Amino acid sequence: MNQDWDVIIVGGGTAGAVLANRLSADSGRRVLLLEAGLDYRGEEIPEFLRNRTLRTGLTMSPSHEMEPDYYWTDVVARRRPEREPMLYPRGKGLGGSSSVNGLIAARPEPGDWTRWEASGAEGWGYDRMLPALNRLESDLDYPDAPHHGASGPIPIHREPREGWGDVDVALDSAGAALGYAWHDDYNAPGTTGRSRYPANHTREFRRVSTNHGYLDPVRDRENLVIRGGAQVDRVIFEGSVARGVVLVDGTEVRVAPGGEVVLSAGAVHSPAILLRSGIGPAAELARLGVPVRADLPVGLGAQDHAIAFVQFQPRIERTLPEGMRPTHVAIRYSTELPGTSRNDMVILATNHNYWFGNDTAGLAVQLNQSFSRGTLWLPDADPRTAPRIEHRLLSDPTDYVRMLDGVARAEDLLNRPEFLEIREGDLRIPRSRLELLAQVKDVMHLCSTARMGAERDEAAVVDPQCRVKSVSGLRVVDASIFPDVVSANINIAVIAVAERAAELLN
Length: 506
What we know:
This protein has 12 helices and 26 strands. By secondary structure, the chain is of the alpha/beta class. The two termini are 23 Å apart.
């Protein structure tokens, strides 16, 4: 690994794969992509990860489906202060979490981007992000719509009605009876109510990660080098200028004069690298014994989506097509509480409850827009020690009230005739505050651990050009920089952020 790279990208996951593709399109730019996990072609992904019905629920321990080659199996998160930490799986190897996630391809609400820009992320409004969203996708259902793309690397598919499970059908019918409108295209601006839930796989149900879509087509570029098994410890600085990185094995890799280091190791590991590099809260760095290079709020303000479940035992005679996804139908709605945005809540059909690893079905209630914030921290400065996450889910009163309301709405739906026909026994529902706080989970959508904002924003770690404040030659491009969590599963948002960042770096 020679020392004259124009760009070193740390992390070949969801965002890093996009950057490697877009930045190496300039044949005069020498790009090195460092990935802690395996370097493998998308077509070589193991069969258990091709399956669109992943059974990697949040209560399950690492198994054959959480092999360390494809998952970070040592990261844990505490969902609530009174609860014990639990496994927080993250994708490892090329494609990152886009290679192991639930394949949801929901776009953020247009208002999310507008809110980002209003908060100080200039140049990240909806008018700038729509081209990035269109560029990343090949929408298989709406290729001619002006708000969709038809030739991007990520296919977007919606399950036809004949492929739905019985919970999908019941949610659609019960939702219609309760007045929720039908808008088929979940990703169209201005839609709400009942929709088919989009996914990033082919019509043949094959996963398409950023490894498949972005890296496989460009692997033969002479100016792009991909190195697996290259976990980064920290950034090398000369004064305040980033000059390269140090790997866990002590190897140094440097950029050419004027080159840049881009951290795209994800919302868990990018902030960890920053902290070990002396960029973070001064008090935390002192605890870690790391000299302060820049006193910035790294790890503070972390967010995730909170989710709760109302479960039931389905009847033995049921419609459950083999290999189907847990969710094909969703209902979005707006609570209109102070400070909330459009479609701040979503109720999801749960045809099979992979979240709990049992045979129940039901409805999932998710905060699309979350206000609660937590922290990410390091137990010590050893790069082999996994970061820790404190979520503090539902600590914000508005989050708690909306989740209570959402559970009540789910109960109303489940007591409709459409659901009574397919369930038996009583509902399993969190009916008290203690029960709700004991059950609530994250959706493994960690973000905002190195937030983007205006130069004078004390909560911001990077500026709107993704540059780390107080130093030069160093950027962060992944979910870490979200000013706040978007109103959707974050896979598509991360890809779009990387597409937009590539424009800024070109």
